[in-house]
Amino acid sequence: MSFGKNFSSALYRSIDQAKHSIASAIRMDVLPPTSASYGRTPIYSLTSARDVEQLATGSDADMGGASKMQLGLDSEEGKGRFYGTLSTEVPANAKLERSGYAAFRNRTRATLFGAQTWDATMHPYLRLRVRNRLAGPPSGEVSNNIAAKVRSAHTTPSIQRASAYTRAVHALGLDRANAPGPKYFVNIQTDGPVTSDLFQHRLLLDERKGNAWQDVIIPLTDFVLMNTGEVAPSQIGMMREKLRTIGVSVVLESPSLDNLKPAKTDNSRGSAPDALRSQTSSEEGENEGAPQVAKGSRRGLKYNFDLGIEHIEAISDDALIEEGITIEQH
Where are the domains of the chain? Predict the structure, then answer.
């Protein structure tokens, strides 16, 4: 993208943001448009070609790996489709030690005053409308009225006060029996001072719903802070008022927690970068990879993945309750 086009886009977003601020001041709004009174903050949808153009993609292939991925619209449904083949093969001339990941996220929305962000202060949950296109038909009777059961973000003190290791095990789904194959993660970057910081959580789909569309709801407080592919030993809360990028990654191996265990004499280990982490040196971060995979991954494995995705939004407790979604208290 040329400098002129980048500047024009930034100028347009700056003017648009200023117009919204002026209109809000004229109306003397007490609460911002992203407040709980609105129930939800749309992040982005994938229902048009223009929507897809606003997203950045990346995989191990950008660094010489053998995985293949595509992000587009399904020809029949007209909704987003993130699909391809993950491979653990590492060619001799590749610039990485481990392979088997792909990801997408929204492009950084630059303005003349800095990056545009989403404010999810009053919206404690992230909801993704997705489906596993490779799964079979739904099994059993799954109520359409109850989209999901989630923990309340306000009533999970055990998770919030737990050690970094315990929080990571929970957030990354390492406390579950995982069959070999692709694993999806949700990745969030805030407009914080450390560009290598990334908040991550496993995207767990209800297997009973098979290939049907379903809502996956994740408390934002359950995300775990990652840095350069590893779980940060010191966990800090997410800056929910400034969400810069949100995306999904798929990997063959879950992140390793070795750095949270007692130190060993041999500290030599490779690392793969976080999933499409935005950097100041490269706005789109196409060469960023996925979470660091476990040491000793087997070579020559290949798995297909195919995720349908319609939209992502931040949502409030009240909006979930109005929809009849059970919020499970702990």
Answer: 31-257+272-328
